[in-house]
Amino acid sequence: MTEAKEAILLVGGKGTRLRPLTVHTPKPMVPAAGVPFLMHQLARARAAGVEHIVLATSYLAEVFEPYFGDGSSLGLHIEYVTEREPLGTGGAIRNVASRLSSGPDEPVLIFNGDILTGLDIRALVTSHATSGADVSLHLTRVEDPRAFGLVPTDSTGRVTAFLEKPQTPEEIVTDQINAGAYIFRRSVIDTIPAGRPVSVERETFPGLLASGAHLQGMVDSTYWLDLGTPQAFVRGSADLVLGRAPSPAVPGRCGDRLVLPTASVAADAKLTGGTVICEDALIGEAARIDGSAVLAGAVVEPGAVITDSLVGAGARIGSRTVLVGAVIGDGAVVGADNELRDGVRVWCGAVLPDASVRFSSDE
């Protein structure tokens, strides 16, 4: 079978590195290019032939179903399974197994809710089928693999080891990393222990390898980005708008800017670099916004300059204020004539008076 009809999407993480974006919103529901990030993943899975998706939820689980419903509007059948206690990646996969209808040898697509990728899903499924693997992994190459788990393969693409976050040059035997998308033979999912936390990366995969199972790696070096940090999330949103990261769910034509229909932008405001202005946001005269996301209902006052930043829902940025690489939480107010740079995060609902901050960093 060369098409995966079913998928499990792991969306249970707390997104602590993304705070304050994730204080009120689970990470997969934070808007990227004008729609919840999860929408891009669901649309790409649907385009690859997936029909049934089970969302493995935990943190703020109640947010997902009211938005996506049964999935019929997307041409999908979506189900939701909520973990009472976080079970890790492997535990989450095992926890939703009863919702799958695939036969023992059929392929099930599994992917993480925080990876933006151009992966050719059909090619991964085909590779899985032709190699006869028990599990196939999407691998990507990175310049500095120290923050990731390395996955060396032999000349046929068969996985030979799993090496967690190497530090010394001798340990860095490959630049191939686990890119967070897998095809499991359905029967393999049932071998994961039930009812306890399991890491698929640290326990399941090494255990399968040790038992002689066939794990196949497919290197696909198209667009790939881990959206774990605010800076990465902002970049991912901009890349979706620019068309660098492919998605059928971008609500408009790709280009330098994306302005949703109910937003209001002054005629002389300048929007560049994949900037997105979400519903009901208001952009004042002579504002300059580059490579940034302004979420629903936010207000950017005249003359503000915003670069590579995210302005949360309902937040307000005062006149002539400069933001560079900043994250402003939902409902926060940054008064006029402030300057925030280099990873500064303003918490949800916080108020910074006019001209109170000229420069700060997250050190």
TrEMBL record:
UniProt cross-references to InterPro entries, sorted A to Z: GMPPB_C (IPR056729), Mannose-1P_guanyltransferase (IPR050486), NTP_transferase_dom (IPR005835), Nucleotide-diphossugar_trans (IPR029044)
Record-annotated Mannose-1-phosphate guanyltransferase C-terminal domain positions: 255-358
Entry-linked Pfam families: GMPPB_C, NTP_transferase
CDD domains: NTP_transferase
Residues in Nucleotidyl transferase domain copies: 7-239
PANTHER family, sorted: SUGAR-1-PHOSPHATE GUANYL TRANSFERASE (PTHR22572)
Assigned protein family: Belongs to the transferase hexapeptide repeat family.
The name this protein goes by in its record: NDP-sugar synthase
